[in-house]
Amino acid sequence: MLKKIVLNILGKGASELALRKQTYKKVNSIVNTDRSEPLLPNTLDNYVEKVARNAYKVLDEDIAALKTAGFSEDEIFELTVTAALSAGAARVELASNLLD
Amino acid sequence: MRLSVLTNGHSFLQKVQIKIITKIIGQTPSPILVLSYKKKFFGKHYTPWLQNSLRKTNHWTIGEVELMGVYISKSNGCEYCTADHIAVAKNALDESVIRAVLTDIDTAPIDVKMKAVLKFLNKLCVSPNEVSKRDIMALKNEGLDRDAIEEAIHVCGIFSVMNRLADAFDFEMSTDLEKVGEFLFKKGYGGGCLRG
Q: Per the omega criterion (within 30 degrees of 0), is the bond before B48 cis?
């Protein structure tokens, strides 16, 4: 069930697929190692770091900065969902792998 | 909501349903707006996982699952989900118990298994890279079996996603928490993604 959700958000979308894959990988790496490679542009990297580590710190200004950097609302929606899903899926995967 | 598409970008049929829901309960809960927008991308697929993980557990009661949701949301600093799921959990648990868990889990009047699993879920939220087999063994030593732990892990997965969406998109706080809580307790989450 979870795999299907991941496959969909890494499939067809309004945002660049490569960027979604990088976003997913970055958040997965934060969950597993507390480290990650930076995304480009920097505005997106800052935003994804916040969503992954402490989403309650996201501000209106973060969304405004993404828009200024050229991201549409649909792209921001998809990249946010991608980051959030990766944070959940990585935790499920990490902990499930320790069960046996 | 920080993205206008999440309040006015839905399909015509969804907009009709949103109007009806708003008329009945005063607002359409933000999670419904997010799960319904571009639903083939995310909501249509996430909603069954949500319903399965929070309402089809074999080892945990709805009250226990909702208490996990409250504790996970608090661990992630998500005020929206903490408030909403306190309202749901109140339908099964005494509110003073829920508040006691949030204040000091060590002295809260809940059983040792629940205490152990909540502490584990907090660690999985806050420092996942430090979670190890020892944590799983500790849960098993408290009498929790593999399937019970796995169910709790999926609850953590569900809330780890929704807490982030709530804060990143700035969900609008529910105006009638009691009504929302009672509805979600009775009906579950299967209707979170609107048709159309």
A: no
